[in-house]
Predict the structure.
Amino acid sequence: MTANVAGYLLQLLAASWLGVEGYSEFASLLAVQLLCAVPALAMQNVVAREVVRGASPRAVRAMMWRCAAMVAAVAVVLIPVVAVVLDVGVWAAAAALGAAPALVILSGEQGILQGGNHFRALATVLAMAGTARVVPALLALALGGGAAGALWAGAAGIVGAAIVAGRIARSTTESAGLPADTEAGRESDTRKTVGVLPVLRAVQVQAALMALSSVDLIVVRVVLDEVDASRYSLGTIATKIAFWLPQAVGVVLYPRMAQPTHSARAIRDALSVLSLIGVVAVLGAALAAPLAPLFAGSDYAPVQGLLWLFALHGAILAVLQGALLSAIAVERTALAAVTWIGLAVEVTLMLAFARTIESLIGTAVSVAAVTTTIVAAVVLRAARTQTAPADPVLS
């Protein structure tokens, strides 16, 4: 929760300090950074699942560093592409991509804590990481560093957070008696190795979700003028709040999803709780909408009546995230194909027909709703099958 609040504060202050002319660039670069966090999110889920299944911290850390090196290489290649597509400077594009390798390491350490059910230590790391990322960025903005300066400062904070997270994870697992650095731990590593392929499969699931949740912030700079693009970008803060607010539900229930005996019940519980929280988030956005111009400025008043719709978008995506997390937990990652199709449909409709803020968010909500309904139906059907009496044909 601390990390999420810090992130929302950064975006609100950035909207105020950069103004409607400059905020869309910052928001678009943040969307790119979110997409770059996809390997990190996949890393945490895979590491947590493998720890639940008996992998040692030593084994998963070896895999983490291999993946971080691969992510760094890809980030370097993408810098000029991002600069051209978003019409931003190379320095700004590099700032958005620069934190990606450190995020992989940070998320891997979080996955070790999550898979071991060390939720108190995990909460400490999450709060620390969110603060370390946001506080330097706020200082950079306050000192006039602009979007690029803020993102570079945030990247430096993430590197520091990854170092501290590693120390916390090692201390926690050692105190829990895991044989990570003993002869027994080394023998365990030879029996249980963790390859990169499971991470790549999880990456495409997380990539589909993050792309669907962020692509509108990229398309908006293509189809709207700078002022309306900034207004739309501010509205997506409500989307992010509704999307990330129930993040703890997936974090806590994910280890149970990865256990065959508890998976079906955990999936049903997760989707039910996420739906309920989503309803509350939409109602909260509708009630709080009149306060938006007070925090961000009167220039953003035109979107206050749409904040409930932005929140609905985030709430639907939160349910989709829960369903896709369950797919990663039980290694049914092919289900992400539905989300990729939804992404293609959304981009096509936006580029072809959306020319206003209302039509953009309406398209995003409609596509997300259809995609989530299909994915959730498949996941729940699979969960019911798991709880049914054993059938030789099905097993």
Q: What stands out?
A: Residues 180-191, 389-395 have pLDDT under 50 and may be disordered. The two ends are 41 Å apart (CA to CA). The chain is about 85% helix and 0% strand.
